[in-house]
Amino acid sequence: MLQTLRWSAGRVVSALITLLGVSILIFAAVRLMPGGYEDIILGPLASPEERAALAAAYGLDQPIIIQYFAWIGQILTGDLGVSFVTQSPVVEELAKRIPVTALLTVMALFVTLVIGIPLGIWTGVRSGAKQGGAMGRIASGFGISVPEFVLGSIVIFVFSRLSLGIQVGGFSNIGSGFGPTFQALLLPALVLSVFCVAAAARTTRDAVMSVLVEPHITAAVARGETPWHIVRHHVIRNAGIPILTLLATVTAYLLGGAVIVETIFNIPGLGSFMVTGLDRRDFAVVQAAVLFAATVFIVVSLVLDLITSALDPRVAVTGKAGS
């Protein structure tokens, strides 16, 4: 028990250190982008005095270390700064867009869980069968190989040309009702989930296949247990830890993939907002949006690690799941 608590505390400290490192990387990457805010706003014909005055107005003339610690100090007080472009607090801007991206991500994650994992279990159990195993490998390979912008463009073309009963574009604010918002996000969520479904199916399939060759499975077969009883009581539980690890990766992928999907489908979410901020060198917006996405990923990874250690205490002892 004490060792588990010590391991959990170590994971929390590791997550905080990772978050600190990510914040430094984000801040440095944004500042190293070619072309500053004053270049975008004032254009190439502005005088050096005008550029210097604008940079001083936003504190961009300060040394980068001072700017970083000032930013961290603001974050610790709950202030993410002010958008250079809209002159609105970044917190208010994010509050409008995070629910949209969150709903899109949850929908894609739901599709991943209800299709990807059962498909992986089915193909893993049927790995010895010619038809089931081959179909699973082909489907997962196709889903992993096709980029979102290609798949999204095909979906927009097909559903715009043909009356298939699903709306393309025309996003409605979440406050206008769940039905129209759900319909507007359905196709983007399906496009976003294709890679995750394929990755989940492939990972689950490999995890199931690795468990099926374990001695306790052979013993269960010798006891006369039915195949699906073995799957429910022996395979899924032992294959669960790699699947939980995958979910952390999938969450990060969904947040990153939302940038492309929101741009293609013209959805006013966090991803498209961040792309607009990059174009306009709106540092406060980009830093806050990327830091939020990184924080979500780190927190999800930490929670899944703690769940994994609870499911298999050997993780806290050996640092890895036992077989």
TrEMBL record:
Subcellular location: Cell membrane
Keywords, alphabetical: Cell membrane, Membrane, Transmembrane, Transmembrane helix, Transport
Keyword Transmembrane: yes
Keyword Transmembrane tagged: yes
Membrane protein topology class: Multi-pass membrane protein
ABC transmembrane type-1 domain sequence ranges: 98-308
Pfam families (UniProt xref): BPD_transp_1, BPD_transp_1_N
Membrane-crossing segments per the record: 12-33, 98-121, 142-162, 182-201, 241-265, 285-304
InterPro entries the UniProt entry points to: BPD_transp_1_N, MetI-like, MetI-like_sf
Domain of life, per lineage: Bacteria
Family (UniProt): Belongs to the binding-protein-dependent transport system permease family.
The name this protein goes by in its record: ABC transporter permease
Taxonomic lineage of the native organism: Bacteria, Bacillati, Actinomycetota, Actinomycetes, Micrococcales
